[in-house]
Amino acid sequence: MSRWGLIPSWSKDGTAAAKMINARGETLSEKPSFRVALQQRRCLIPADGFYEWRMENGKKQPFRIGMKGGVVFAFAGLWESWLAKQDGYGYEEGDLVETVTILTTDANDKLRPIHHRMPVILPPENYTAWLDPANDVAKCEKFLKPYPVDPMAFYRVGVFVNNARNDDARCIEPLKVANGG
């Protein structure tokens, strides 16, 4: 298990995690927080969906996004091991904390009306190359692009998903609209 939000190994405290739940694929190699992880600690994060929000009638409308038929897929991610150097932020000195972040890219044409960014979804044929630390950064950066439109699907869900404490099937139920549509 890993904690959400990358904490670089050199970080003095755990506050970085809240800021690094995702990382822009276009600038990874430029950022000290991600540079070494991109070279040595790439990972796959399995999922069957994710959420984005769009403003509609002055309110944020959540959408569940995934693959047609509910097929499981994998996000491109990076991980780090961080050794807590002091007590605080929910950690005790000496705790070894495994952390992870999802990489993002520009949205594909299907998702752009909902949000301008999307997670990097890797096709299965790229899993091995992405995970292989022998592959250089330049080769891996070629994988950091929008996923093809055709296999993807999305639908509106209720605002129940807006609270992180809510963790049950209601988060993925399609929103019922008043006109029966």
Structural commentary:
23% of the residues are buried. The model has no long low-confidence stretch (mean pLDDT 92). Helix content is 10%, strand content 33%. The protein is mainly beta and 181 residues long. The strands form two sheets. Strands 1, 2, 3, 6, 7, 8 and 9 form a seven-stranded mixed beta sheet that branches. Strands 4-5-10 form a three-stranded antiparallel beta sheet, with no helix packed on it.
How is this fold's topology laid out?
Blueprint: E1 3-4, E2 22-24, H1 32-40, E3 42-47, E4 50-56, E5 59-67, E6 73-83, E7 96-106, E8 117-119, E9 121-122, H2 127-131, H3 137-141, E10 152-156
Parallel strand pairs: 1-7, 2-7
Antiparallel strand pairs: 3-6, 4-5, 5-10, 6-7, 6-9, 7-8
User: Average pLDDT value?
Assistant: 92
Radius of gyration equals: 18 Å
Number of helices: 3
Q: How far apart are the first and last residues' alpha carbons, in Å?
A: 40 Å
**Strand pairing plus helix content: what structural class?**
mainly beta
Order of helices and strands: EEHEEEEEEEHHE
The percentage of residues in β strands lies in 25-35%
Low-confidence stretches: none
CATH homology-level superfamily: SOS response associated peptidase-like
In total, the number of strands is 10
| CATH architecture call | Alpha-Beta Complex
- Shape descriptor reads globular
What would CATH call the class? Answer: Alpha Beta
